[in-house]
Amino acid sequence: MSNDSMLSQEGFDKLTKELEFLKGPERQRIAENIREAKSHGDLKENAMYHEAKLNQTRLESRIAELERVLMHAQIIDMEHEEGTAHLGSKIVLEDLEWGDKMNIELVGAFEADPINDLISVAAPMGAALLGKRTGEEIEVEAPAGTQRYKILSVD
User: Rounded to an integer, what distance in angstroms lies between the CA atom of residue 144 and that of residue 155?
Assistant: First the structure.
């Protein structure tokens, strides 16, 4: 099974909602921008028109990407032991070197957004956490070297 197609139910619902927004109000807004830009005359030197068309291309690409992912999505509700890390788990970690605490959620690769603490189960940290329990320690290879974490809680 491709990691791209693994989604939590929450992730599937979020992507479905995004797709509906893009196909409805956002597509309408961009079409209106194109109509307005056309009304300004010569299209060859009309920066507003070229920008609107570029935005339309980006929108249609994102719509196609979301449709592909949702069509092939496999919603994962893994059988797991209570208290073990799995897709969809919310985990609190402590960096053993610096003492910093961080909250993350394990998600499928397509849902991953490290800036918002959504870590893919295919990423080194996500893979290291799978199947682990509260109190266990993990090591993650990073460009800066090996990082060690202690699992404070798994929900």
Answer: 29
d(Cα 87, Cα 39) in Å, to the nearest integer?
50
Residue 80 lies in a domain: no
Q: For 9-20, how does the pLDDT look when each residue is reduced to its tens digit (9 = 90+)?
A: 888 898 999 999
- C-beta of residue 110 within 8 angstroms of C-beta of residue 69: yes
> Can you give the residue range of the structural domain that contains 33?
3-75
The contacts of residue 55 (CB under 8 Å, 6+ apart) are: 30, 33
CATH of the domain at 145: 3.10.50.30
Q: What are phi and psi of 102, to 5 degrees?
A: -140, 145
Average pLDDT for 122-131: 90
Structural domain count, the chain:
2
